[in-house]
């Protein structure tokens, strides 16, 4: 390795403005879950070897990004209830 010192003079110093604009690194954290897939779908995903879970994530991300965000409700919808036999 060369023993000549590295010239850092063209790199601006990191100040508070830099850190205020800094963002969280990609990719976002993953969550473990259980999912049920049709056997033929799973076979198709696994046919290309390792990384089928990553492929599932990429397929779902593409679907998510191609559809506009739906309005979410912070208040849950009321549950439908059936009248019990004999109640008024």
Describe the structure.
There is one protein chain. The chain is built from three helices and no strands. It is mostly helical. The chain has a domain at 26-66.
What's the SSE blueprint?
Blueprint: H1 16-21, H2 39-46, H3 52-66
SSE sequence, one letter per element: HHH
* Broad structural category: mainly alpha
Give the C-alpha Rg: 26 Å
Q: Which regions are unreliable across 5 or more consecutive residues at pLDDT < 50? A: none
- The number of helical elements comes to 3
Average of pLDDT: 83
Helix content: 25-40%
From the spread of the alpha carbons, the general shape counts as flat
How many beta-strand runs?
A: 0
How is the biggest beta sheet arranged?
A: none
Beta content comes to: under 5%
- The end-to-end distance, rounded to whole angstroms, is 88 Å
What's a quick, concise take on this entry?
The chain has 88 residues and is mainly α. It is built from 3 helices and no strands.
